[in-house]
Amino acid sequence: MMSKKIYVINPNSLHTVTGGIEEALEPLRIPGGPEIECLTLAAGPPGIQKQQDVDSVVTPLIRQVASLELSASAFVIACFSDPGLHSLREITAKPVIGIGEAGILTALTLGQRVGVIAILPESIPRHLRYYGSMGLLDRLAGELPVNLGVAELADREQTLERMSAVGSVLRDAHGADVLVMGCAGMAALRNRLQEAVGVPVVEPCQAGVAMVMGRVLLNWHST
Fold first, then answer.
1. Looking at the domain assignment, is residue 199 inside a domain?
2. pTM > 0.90: yes or no
3. Residue 2 has pLDDT above 80, yes or no
4. H helix or E strand, kind and range, residue 117
5. For residue 178, what is the enclosing H or E element?
6. Structural domain count, the chain
């Protein structure tokens, strides 16, 4: 029998981001569980920050997913904007999970009012369009940026300081009782952020892989 393998694809070209994702996913690598392999999309930009960046990676993602189809049990797209999600679901019968969708849906099970920590102000309108398409704006407490680009997130202490400050504002001024980290580049900081803000924090790469592990192990298929 073919081994169960989940491919987690970082659609930007920063290996530092992929390394943080690897670190965040370590608790999900369990004996007898699916193999989790993290990949960096070499053709991607050094950070997905604008709608043009999102659009630019769809075709390379389609090519990469198609090339991995035979060895894959499932795919996770590790970008909070879920680039190409529905196109990828058209080309493979394997489960495809976007971390943005998974992160928000997981947060809805942990609290009533969801706060999202974005990287930059220009990310927020794009995310709001997505939440609106999911019909979930009524559960959104707010989304605020840390004003750091994807590459700058590699400075973990600065990033944690900014995220803690923004998370506290979402909690205290906006009424958020659960927070979502709105970029895969933040992945390795979930535990420290949750300790700092005192409310549940969802890291969307973890949420996406945990969700797709259930699909793989229970042999659930989309209709």
1. yes
2. yes
3. no
4. strand 114-118
5. strand 178-181
6. 2
